[in-house]
Fold each of these.
Amino acid sequence: MVRRTLLLLPTLLVPLLLMFTLLQLTPGDPAAMMLGDFAPPEQLERLREQLGLNDSMGVQLVNWVGDLARLDLGTSIFAQEPVWDVIKSQAGVTIHLTLLSLAITVIVGVGAGVVSALYRGSPLDQGVMLGSMFGVSLPQFWFGLNLIAIFSVGLRWFPVGGYVPLGDGFWLSNRSLALPAITLGLVQAGFLARITRSSILDVMGEPYVTAARAKGIPEYIVVWKHVLRPALIPVITVIGIALALLLSGAVAVEVVFTLPGLGRSMVSAVARRDFPLIQGIVLVVAVTNVLVNLLVDLLYAVIDPRVRYQ
Amino acid sequence: MAIAWIGLSVIVVASIAAPLLAPADPSYIDVANRLRPPGPGRLMGTDNFGRDILARVLYGGRTSISIGVAVVIFGVGGGATLGLLAGYYRWVDNVVMRVVDGLISFPALVLAIGMVGVLGPGAGTVILALTIVYAPRVVRIVRGSVLVIKEHPFVEAAVSLGAGSGYIIVRHLLPNVWSPIIVQASFIFSFAVLGEAALSFLGVGVPADVPSWGNILTDARSYLGTAWWMSLFPGLTIVLTVLTLNVIGDGLRDALDPKLRTR
């Protein structure tokens, strides 16, 4: 388990190094960007010294990693606040959205996958497979736009956008995220449905399932105890992948539904060339993603005794 | 599968022939005819500047499909090369696979936006960002195949006949990994079309004055309740393109690799 955790370190380093290198390659002087075009040269020089820009690349890298370890991600050029504070104030929306979407993905995806495997070849199965094919082909932001046009503008069932914090009422808050979460969750559900279906069909072909049937065990017990249990365990690992996809999708969905989360913040940071904020968000997402994947892997070993990490 | 090939060909040919097919100049502003619904003479209606949407979708296809093709060329070309080397040489494997594992598990769009943000928007950076995000898939799959093929007796035979490493990689390994490469190419194409659309829609893709499927939809956002045609037609075009690519990819995988046949 310790080894498994240590193995994740290089995985984490890659996005970190990529961002560091890209920032080094960028033309332009961060000091000049922060002070504006007409700053006097001696002031520029002082800021450069202060930011450590005159040090060699190696020293800068070491300092940067040191800062990261202390959760010091720099200062947002636009907000003039520590990047970590900006991220903290916006992460809640993104986490709420991602969890709600994940719930929709798992319920709809696993449900549809199970139904479609059990009624293999039926019109129901074909419908689910067709739906999941469409799901993976939809641009999420466009799906969201259509949902807004139908359910917010047309039927007026949901707000057009914006986020009601959880503190203002559980129901109101979830209602404000309903359409965004459906947008994100349904599209990913197609992916999960396909994996669930093929996992169940694999298990159904196992000799011990035939044996269970031959013993005269009622079909619903065969399905429940002998097929679903082993078939759904591998599906858990996919949740880690689903999370990366959801976080990716959340960026576009937050913009479409004007939700004040990390994704929208990142897009506006790009427009304002607020490099410390862009970098900070990429790093926080990277760390979260790696940690969740670790958690899923460890959970997998707990649920499935056949899996042991040496 | 056949229908998908026909559909994709129609979309690609129509985009290439945009100057011949487009009923109007895609950037021609005609304020008198702004936000006109679809009708004779303007099959997809006009946008908030009176620009013809059909013309914009056709010209947008040139941008979006070109970017898709470029990502396929660089992503699949680069990915396959690295995959072949990583599968063949152990020391390359250690380095390349660490990087690939780091990139593959990362939320693609977040990384792509981060890169575009640092390098500045533009078609070139979109291609670079999408290539870096999607090439690792190709590396992983090609490397996996090479590791299996490398153990076959014909490779050992070639080595004992004195064949050099380069010769073995190009003449013996590459021909055996063509099918996974082709299958991946169709999926990468579909990811790239979706990725470009998302980046451009978010305003961090190709510049707003160049029509692309993504930034046509950016304009549509403000007119959802009043001008449904502004988002419907460009959106459907993206869905059709990506759907045909995915159907082709699935079909190729089933045809080329019977072991992976989806039930």
Note: Chain B touches chain A through 46 residues (CB under 8 Å).
Amino acid sequence: MLSTLLAAAIDGLMIGVVYGLVAMGLTLIFGVMNVINLAHGPVVVLGMFGVYLCFAQLGLPPYGGLLVVAVLGILLGVLIYFVAVHRVLNAPHLSSLLATFAVNMMIIGIGTSILSTNFRNVDYSLGTLRLGTIALTGTRLTAAGVALAITAALYLFLQRTRPGKYIRAVANNRQSAELMGIPSRRVLALAFGIGTMLAAMAGGLLATIQPFTILSGGVYELKSFVIVVLGGLGNPIGALVGGLILGLIEGLVPVFMRTTWVPVLEFVLFVLILLIRPQGLFGAKS
Amino acid sequence: MTSESAATTPSHLATASQATWDRQSLLGLAIPLGLVAIFGLYPALQANASAREAMFTVLMAVALASSLNILLGYTGYVSFGHIVFFGLGGYIGFWVIDEWGLHLLPAALLGGLVSAALAFLLGLAILRLRGAFFALATIGINEAMKALVVNLPFLGGPTGLELHFSVYRNYGGPARALWLSYWSLVVVAVIVVVVSYLVKKSKFGLGLMAIREDEDAAEIMGVVAPRTKTWAYMLSAFFPGIIGVLFFFKNGIIEPASAFRLHISIELLVVIMLGGAGTVLGPVLGAAFYQRLRGLLLTTEFFKDIQLAVAGALLLLIVLFIPGGAIGWLRSWHRFPALRRVLE
């Protein structure tokens, strides 16, 4: 029993790190420009297909494809920002929600017609690591490791580099940042690009773990909402912890009850956190 | 508005201006009602089932969007998961029709009341949240409810419920049952439009719009915001509950995926934005236009596959360039100030 629990917990934590990475993109965008990006799910799926196409068509190993996805992701993010988000930054919430949802519809519409809704999977194996009675799938372990590395890189970028500091300054107070000579338009575009890149890369990692279709994004988007609220909207490190919590729930709950109860627990928890601690589990009391 | 003009003009002029104001403002109700009546009667004149199905979709969008508009357009609270009331009402009504053999009409009313009751309970909690947090909470509630229904065996779990064919015998056969659900929907659509108009013209509606503009300022001016918002939320949940029962009775089958489809919720927002949020006529026009467009795209060979992308591009253009929707845009024509008074 104990080893079952341990195996389930480790499995959950590994996928949780990747969920955390998906959510980190969403929370970064919200933290910097107060926009809930409803095009997040489709971007995750584009990352999946990026890695899949690089692997199946070009023969690149998935982790090489991830670099391609990263570059394309940041460009796509900047494009989405200038087309759909920039004009509605100061409009009521409904405008930015609907503008990003419009992007969601366009990506899904074009994607469905080109890529169909068939299931795909990246047929790539890294073997299995055995620790006593616990078996760890190689691709899962690597995905978790890469996701942690990306998180660390993001942290260093935001804390130590000049563009990272610009992003934090704009997140803190856009007007003052502009008065200090920070080009807020470019910084916002960069932040949106990085948020989109994180989602696309997380999608690329998920593609090595699970089969997917063009419509899979909605699930990860909803999970990201839960994670982001757990960790506090706008807090990237909180998103990692939120991802771990969600992963643990998904790993451990099926040991005790039917898998179909997992989403019930997740969304009830989500609404409860919104009501009781809207600043997230780790946010300071406002 | 009337009291203002009475204060500044001599009394005999005041009554005259009041009369014209009333006539014009009644036109604001007559136009949307006329449209709904035309949509509603069209299948009866055609007397065919496919016209009825097409108009069922349009009228459903009219009624759902108009009820959501009470919360979204008048009060300014973005409910992304409003479809939860449609699904819950549908399930409750469907279940009592199937299990107890209750007639469609009381079942529909029950569905509406249960939805309103849920909105009351939810409202106590989530209406404290503002902006994006409220929108997220409504998504969470819809998903939680969908996941919960999947786990309830008496509601059929993930496969849902199917209506026993014998149920239709009480209505004189399936054909008459379908017409009954259609005519009930027409009546509901008319009632929703009238309620939407009355709310907009009432003191209650003014309170809602004050909350929309600035909730804190509204409270200082004496609007009891929590109570007012809860009423608006219940009102906007009541009608979707009824419509859910009518729709799923017509379909004869209900399942979690079709009852709580987040996508429909967002389509309703699109409909409202197309026509103009916070107007009576807007959701009616938006629903008719959106459903017509969707039908056209779906049946055109070239657009069939990318209809979603075309709809998305249209939505983006509207959000970016015409945020007031069709009615907001027409009302802002300075050359025809009369439009401002006629279009509500």
Note: The radius of gyration of chain A is 19 Å.
